[in-house]
Structure formats: structure tokens, C-alpha cells
Amino acid sequence: MMENTWPSGGLSIVSVKVTSVLAAIVLLLVIGLFHVWVRIEVTQCEYDVSRLEKKIRQAEYDQKSLTVSIAQLTNPRYIEKVAITRLGLRAPRAEQVITVR
Q1: Structural domains in the chain (count)
Q2: Structural domain of residue 85, as residue ranges?
Q3: Which of 5, 6, 21, 90 is placed for a possible disulfide with 10 were both Cys, Cβ 3.0 to 4.6 Å?
């Protein structure tokens, strides 16, 4: 009957190979997790940039809208119209005008 025995030093070679394979698997797992984490961070940054671009567009729209409002509110014709219709003012008569030197 033949016995199966490990040759001397053979068990340590198998142990080194198993350790090397496990180390390679762990290294690949760490690299894979790092890659996934980086992709998640990049995607989050892209969402942040998109949100900030939307805020910029809204601020530019608001600025243009306010510029139009300023132009309307400082127009002398508009001021005169509001003075007459809303405030009930009228142009002064000649005897009401006083010239200051």
C-alpha cells in the first residue's frame, strides 16, 4: 500500500502560494472598492456642478429681470404717470413756481 505524504518543505510552498493568491485577491478587492468610491465621488461632483450651474442661470435671469424693472421705474414718463394716477398729483401752476437764485 502506498502512502501519500507531503515531501519535506512541500507544505510550506503550498502555504506561500495560498497566501500569495489571497493577497492578490485582497489587493484586487481594495482596488475595485477604491474605483467604485472614486466613481461615486465624481458623480456627486457632477451633480453639484449641475446644481450650481442652475443657480447661476437663475441668478442671471433675476439680474436681467431687475435691470428691466429699474429701467421701467426710473423712466420719467412712468414716474409722471404714477404721480398723476396713483398719487393724484398735478403740474404746478405758474404762480406756484418759485425760482431760487
Answers
A1: 1
A2: 19-89
A3: 6
Is 3 within a domain?
no
pLDDT, one tens digit for every residue, the chain (101 residues): 556 665 555 557 778 888 999 999 999 999 999 999 999 999 999 999 999 999 999 999 999 999 999 999 999 999 999 999 999 999 889 889 998 98
- DSSP string of 7-63? PTTHHHHHHHHHHHHHHHHHHHHHHHHHHHHHHHHHHHHHHHHHHHHHHHHHHHHHH
Q: Is 1 contained in some domain?
A: no
Q: Is residue 97 part of a domain?
A: no
19: nearest Cα among 8, 27, 31 = 27
Asked whether residue 94 is assigned to any structural domain, the reply reads no
C-alpha cell at 19: 497566501
Amino acid at 11: L
